[in-house]
Amino acid sequence: MKTELKTNNNNAYNCHYHVVFCPKYRRSVLVSPIDERLKTIILEIIEKWGQELVEMEIMPDHIHLLVGCEPQFGVHKLVKYIKGASSFQLRKEFPELKHKLSSLWTNSYACYTVGDVTLEIIKKYVENQKGK
């Protein structure tokens, strides 16, 4: 896959993140038809904020997202918007979720950066900037 540098008024970037989060108590509540509706909601939120969805997989007890996100926007803000809006919408459309969980999502999430180079290559690049 070719790396594409994106730009905005302030910077050039290529930032992708693997984000994983789960329902409160890791309950297996993300099943049909909730999972399909959740996919739609997540896609709408990502598009609304001008970010990029590369891949998404919803398991009964957790979600994997591969997203591209502007550094100034921040992956933390994107996850916050996804979790907040999806919880509100799903609990409104599927009242049984309110009875199973006091809140839909845990407060935490896992976030991993995705890149074309290893940490060692970047370390060497930074070390050699002054011609060491």
UniProtKB/TrEMBL annotation:
GO terms for biological process: DNA transposition. Gene3D superfamilies: Transposase IS200-like. It comes from the Bacteria. Keywords: Plasmid. SUPFAM superfamilies: Transposase IS200-like (SSF143422). The keyword Disulfide bond does not apply. Residues 12-129 form the Transposase IS200-like domain. It holds the Pfam family Y1_Tnp. GO terms for molecular function: DNA binding; transposase activity. NCBIfam families: transpos_IS200. This is IS200/IS605 family transposase. The gene is tnpA.
